[in-house]
């Protein structure tokens, strides 16, 4: 009976099933035709066809010759056959191997010396930008991996012995055959940075995660920042490109965060309340000059409750005034003026012994003894190329003396995943607590996908990493490891999120990618560019940004681009003339997503490879 009852039902469903299958086939046929026609988002230049469910991952990027760059996701160019071939960029002349476009000496010397203006950024106009590839010097070698890289640098990579002579008695750097050795000394800590930091730690809670971000003004070869990394503190170090040749280059070659910079006439490229501490170790910045403008600038970027360390002149002037060839009265007047300025900033001196003085900024304005009428009126986070002002950045408002102005931060690493106070207080336009959490979750997923593409990401192979369009810093947060650090760059034309990035315990800088970055060539192992070229497509030439990326990327370094497929194809066309190996893969959510990922590995070549040099004009 059962078979008799169900047989008619089965026969009745068969035509219906066939109809449904035919209907679905027709639907997907028309959908595919629509996407290929160019009316779907982003498929005007390229159609990506997935041949396999799984993308083949890269397991070794150290040897470019071993890479298979035939795309697993084959793509068929449908661009106009009449379109010209990719422009081939020639190598620049070997003498340009350390070219820094915005800090070149010849251009710098045409600017005034007052307030160190000539040491600030002075970038070439469009007509003078180089259109060639900066070569690595002869014999260039992959830097030592961390932590060995902290103490050793290949001479061939930074062939300058000047500091080994000038700073011979201060234990900065020693030349030993084909390498430089960095013993960890400095002008104010010739016996080593560890002992110096241990003394600071008797006053400043360096070891418990309260101090995470630090600023070193006039850093030398950044040994202080290098040894602060042992305490899980990220230091933003800067020094000018001056007669102490290659200070910042040495720092980055060692695997320590640093940029070319100076306290001059414009604001530092960092947001307000960014750093837990700042230090000047014989940096020779005239803190008492210009009505205290430089100390006011440090105050702007120092977090409420943060610390400022001054070691060297004029501290301990009673011992050294004759060595400095200065009078007692002059030295005393300078220190008195600094302490008077510190008090006006609502700082309290916590320690003075030997060559070191430590000040602490009050946690809010209610606890200040002096109230200044000279308050800044401008936006303390709108600082790109803005003139430094002689005024005091106001504290954020609080309701009680126990409250920390701007919001209390968790100790690191807890603060990495906590909601930044700027986000919680609605100070980052368009970003809510929920969207911040979603962004963090999204980038964890994306970074995991990147690691499937390149299994060396997150290892010691890539130490110096840059995120060119950092957003909320979630890429860096997902990667966080003692094996690496990330320079989070917030473009000057993007949403201002850098303050929130610092509140996560990360470091970064403002920059305009239509100009050269404040670093030496070959200083980053890995560069991430998500949505950067969509952001800049109407602002400046793609080739100028790509040439700058090539300049700062080390030979055999890697770039990951993430952008709309149209944009990615434009990048691929230019990259074809740049000695890059490229591979485009699908979005982590599949081939139907118009956003694509481009993997680049820079080929190894040097100025001695037999190329004829180009002036680049």
Automatic annotation (TrEMBL):
Keyword Transmembrane set for record: yes
Keyword Membrane carried by entry: yes
Gene Ontology molecular function: any one: methyltransferase activity
Keyword entries, A-Z: Glycoprotein, Golgi apparatus, Membrane, Methyltransferase, Signal-anchor, Transferase, Transmembrane, Transmembrane helix
UniProt-listed Enzyme Commission number(s): 2.1.1.-
Chief place where the protein resides: membrane
SUPFAM superfamilies the record matches: S-adenosyl-L-methionine-dependent methyltransferases
Assigned protein family: Belongs to the methyltransferase superfamily.
Listed PANTHER family: METHYLTRANSFERASE PMT14-RELATED, SAM-DEPENDENT METHYLTRANSFERASE
Name this polypeptide is given: Methyltransferase
């Amino acid at each position: 009976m059962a078979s008799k009852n169900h047989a008619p039902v089965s026969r009745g469903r068969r035509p219906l099933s066939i109809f449904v299958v035919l209907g679905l086939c027709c639907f997907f046929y028309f959908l595919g035709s629509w996407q290929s026609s160019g009316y779907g988002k982003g498929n005007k230049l390229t159609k990506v066809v997935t041949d396999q469910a799984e993308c083949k991952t890269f397991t070794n990027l150290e040897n470019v010759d071993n890479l298979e760059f035939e795309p697993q996701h084959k793509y068929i160019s449908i661009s106009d056959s009449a379109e010209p071939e990719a422009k081939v960029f020639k190598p620049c002349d070997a003498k340009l191997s350390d070219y820094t476009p915005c800090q070149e000496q010849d251009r710098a010397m045409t600017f005034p010396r007052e307030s160190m203006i000539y040491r600030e950024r002075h970038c070439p106009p469009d007509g003078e930008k180089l259109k060639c590839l900066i070569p690595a010097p002869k014999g260039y070698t992959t830097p030592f991996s961390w932590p060995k890289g902290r103490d050793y640098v290949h001479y061939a990579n930074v062939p300058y012995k000047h500091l080994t002579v000038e700073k011979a008695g201060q234990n900065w750097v020693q030349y030993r055959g084909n390498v430089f050795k960095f013993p960890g000394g400095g002008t104010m800590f010739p016996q080593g940075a560890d002992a110096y930091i241990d003394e600071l730690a008797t006053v400043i809670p360096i070891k418990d995660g309260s101090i995470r971000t630090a600023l070193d003004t006039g850093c030398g070869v950044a040994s202080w920042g290098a040894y602060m990394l042992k305490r899980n503190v990220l230091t933003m170090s800067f020094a000018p490109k001056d007669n102490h040749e290659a200070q910042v280059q040495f720092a980055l070659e060692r695997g320590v965060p640093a940029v070319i910079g100076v306290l001059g006439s414009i604001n530092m490229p960092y947001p307000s309340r960014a750093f837990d501490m700042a230090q000047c170790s014989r940096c020779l910045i005239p803190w008492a000059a210009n009505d205290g403008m430089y100390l006011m600038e440090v105050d702007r970027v120092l977090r409420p409750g943060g610390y400022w360390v001054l070691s060297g002149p004029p501290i301990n002037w009673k011992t050294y005034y004759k060595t400095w060839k200065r009078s007692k009265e002059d030295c005393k007047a300078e220190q008195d003026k600094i302490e008077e300025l510190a008090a006006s900033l609502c700082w309290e001196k916590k320690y003075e012994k030997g060559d070191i003085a430590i000040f602490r900024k009050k946690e809010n304005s209610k606890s200040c003894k002096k109230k200044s009428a000279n308050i800044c009126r401008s936006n303390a986070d709108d600082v790109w190329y803005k003139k430094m002002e002689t005024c005091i950045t106001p504290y954020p408002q609080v309701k009680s003396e126990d409250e920390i102005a701007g919001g209390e931060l968790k100790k690191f690493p807890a603060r990495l995943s906590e909601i930044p106070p700027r986000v919680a207080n609605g100070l980052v336009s368009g970003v809510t607590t929920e969207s911040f959490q979603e962004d963090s979750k999204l980038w964890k997923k994306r970074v995991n996908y990147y690691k499937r593409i390149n299994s060396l990401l997150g290892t010691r192979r890539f130490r110096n990493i840059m995120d060119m369009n950092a957003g909320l810093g979630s890429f860096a947060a997902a990667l966080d490891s003692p094996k690496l650090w990330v320079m989070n760059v917030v473009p000057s034309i993007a949403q201002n999120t850098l303050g929130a990035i610092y509140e996560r315990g990360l470091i970064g800088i403002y920059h305009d990618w239509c100009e050269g970055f404040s670093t030496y060539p070959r200083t980053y192992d890995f560069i991430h560019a998500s949505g950067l070229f969509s952001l800049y497509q109407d602002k400046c030439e793609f080739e100028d940004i790509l040439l700058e990326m090539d300049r700062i990327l080390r030979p055999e370094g890697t770039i990951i681009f993430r952008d709309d497929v149209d944009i990615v194809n434009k990048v691929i066309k230019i990259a074809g003339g740049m000695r890059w190996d490229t591979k485009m893969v699908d979005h982590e959510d599949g081939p139907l997503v118009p956003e694509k990922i481009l993997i680049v590995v820079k080929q190894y070549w040097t100025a001695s490879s037999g190329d004829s040099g180009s002036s680049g004009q």
